Structure formats: C-alpha cells, structure tokens
Amino acid sequence: MENRIKIERAILDITQDELAQKIGVSRQTINSIEANRYVPSTVLALKLSAVFNKPVNDFFKLTEND
Q1: Where does the record place the HTH cro/C1-type domain (predicted)?
Q2: What CATH number has the domain bearing residue 12?
Q3: CA-wise closest residue to 34 among 56, 64, 5, 65
Q4: What is the pLDDT of residues 8-65, one digit of tens each?
Q5: Are 33 and 61 a contacting pair, CB within 8 Å?
Q6: Backbone angles phi, psi at 60, to 5 degrees
Q7: Contact (CB, 8 A) for 58 and 3
Q8: For residue 34, what are the domain limits?
Q9: Residue 4 CB-half CA count within 13 A
Q10: 46, 64, 65: which is closest to 56 by C-alpha?
Q11: CA 65/CA 15 separation, integer angstroms
C-alpha cells in the first residue's frame, strides 16, 4: 500500500507530532505509516480522513502487491 500522509501533512502545514496528537497516536506511529512500515487500522484511517477532510482513498492506495 502507498500513502500520501506526508504530502497531506505538508498541505496542512503540521508536524508528525501535531498530526499524532490530533488522532491520538505517537509521533513514531505517524513516522511508521509514512514510511510504509505500518498499515493503520480502519479507526486510524478514518481519524486521518477527518483531519485531512478527505476520503481515505485520497491518501491510501493499494498497489499490485496488496
């Protein structure tokens, strides 16, 4: 899976720590999601959707390997 979390953060001009606080996770979790080392739960994906005010499909995409 690919994601645009870093790009969406840049659009909002917020840090990993600020995003983490908004959705109730650690900065390390945000870092791991951005680096594709961690696939967030549905609940976290929906929380990100609320912060970015965009559908989940706008910032998470399946790849051929998924």
Answers
A1: 5-59
A2: 1.10.260.40
A3: 5
A4: 999 999 999 999 999 999 999 999 999 999 999 999 999 999 999 999 999 999 999 8
A5: no
A6: -125, 130
A7: no
A8: 2-51
A9: 15
A10: 46
A11: 30
Q: Is the CB of residue 27 less than 8 Å from the CB of residue 20?
A: yes
Cβ-count burial of 14 within 10 angstroms (0-12 exposed, 13-18 middle, 19+ buried)? middle
Q: Is residue 64 part of a domain?
A: no
Please state, in angstroms and as integers, the Cα–Cα distance from residue 49 to each residue in 14, 42, 59, 65, following that order.
Answer: 15, 10, 8, 24
**Residue 56: inside a domain:** no
Per the structure block, which two tokens stand in for 20? 């983490």
pTM of the model: 0.92
